[in-house]
Inverse folding.
């Protein structure tokens, strides 16, 4: 359960002219974030390898030393939460149709890339009990089954629930309560971005522990020093997706972000190793 805030320590970044910028910020004590910063996330288990959100993808990331895995959840017609990104099945299975229109019995016969089964969320959480899962709830129908799976597997301390949709996150929070960590939806991110200029107050649900955003949203630069300053002042971690190039990874780390999500798990690991940040060391 959230019990307050803790000081995470000094963070030093470099400005464009090379001047050192030191900030002290607070982060929630939620156990999901209780690890050396900045965090390294395997996006969909490492989607650059071709198979994503499969048991094999997650296992590869874990063997490389990843302790944070980003994934996605939909629900079947009979309410089983499954690990899958797309609303439709065609791209990954070659079969037309929507996950929400099939029962688990039907969906379990399909294969990703002709080989890998589509995982259930509860089985995934059980299979890697030491791994922390950042779960993007992709559909309204998946909200209740996802929360139920997190509860039934006793995974509350090591799960963060995310979504683009603020309305979907409101439903998740109403079901889960304040002890299940969540991130901000895009409407809330827009409010954070605007108030970062004016330094206005922004009220958030007590379960919100992180801002998880791309560098840019359309023509708008989201990840900049003012947003980081605002988020850190509010006790929020800032995680950026999906970053695959070493130069951009280094730039964001120098800026002071608290975590990076990547499809190229080998590339992110190598940059973290070079900087002495790798979680497994």
């Amino acid at each position: 359960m959230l019990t307050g805030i803790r000081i995470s320590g000094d963070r030093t970044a470099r400005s464009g002219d090379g001047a050192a910028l030191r900030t002290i910020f607070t982060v929630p004590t939620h156990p999901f974030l209780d690890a050396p910063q900045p965090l390294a996330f395997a996006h969909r288990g490492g989607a650059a390898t071709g198979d994503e959100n499969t048991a094999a993808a997650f296992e590869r990331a874990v063997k490389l030393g990843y302790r944070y895995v980003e994934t996605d959840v939909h629900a079947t017609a009979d309410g089983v939460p499954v690990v899958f990104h797309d609303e439709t099945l065609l791209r990954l299975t070659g079969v037309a149709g929507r996950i929400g229109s099939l029962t688990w019995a039907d969906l379990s016969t399909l294969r990703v890339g002709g080989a890998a089964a589509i995982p259930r969320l509860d089985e995934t959480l059980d299979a890697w009990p030491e791994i922390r899962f950042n779960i993007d709830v992709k559909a309204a129908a998946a909200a209740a089954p996802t929360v139920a799976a997190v509860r039934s597997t006793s995974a509350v301390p090591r799960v963060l629930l995310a979504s683009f949709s603020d309305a979907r996150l409101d439903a998740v929070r109403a079901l889960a309560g304040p002890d299940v960590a969540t991130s901000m939806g895009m409407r809330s991110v827009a409010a954070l971005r605007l108030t970062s200029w004016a330094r206005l107050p922004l009220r958030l649900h007590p379960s919100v522990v992180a801002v998880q955003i791309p560098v840019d949203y359309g023509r708008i630069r989201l990840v900049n020093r003012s947003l980081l300053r605002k988020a850190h002042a509010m006790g929020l971690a800032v995680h950026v997706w999906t970053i695959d190039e070493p130069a951009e990874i280094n730039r964001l780390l120098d800026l002071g972000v608290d975590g990076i999500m990547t499809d190229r798990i080998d590339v992110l690991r190598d940059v973290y190793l070079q900087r002495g940040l790798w979680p497994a060391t």
Notes: The radius of gyration is 18 Å. DSSP finds ten helices and 15 strands in the chain. The chain has one domain: 5-274. The chain has a mean pLDDT of 90.
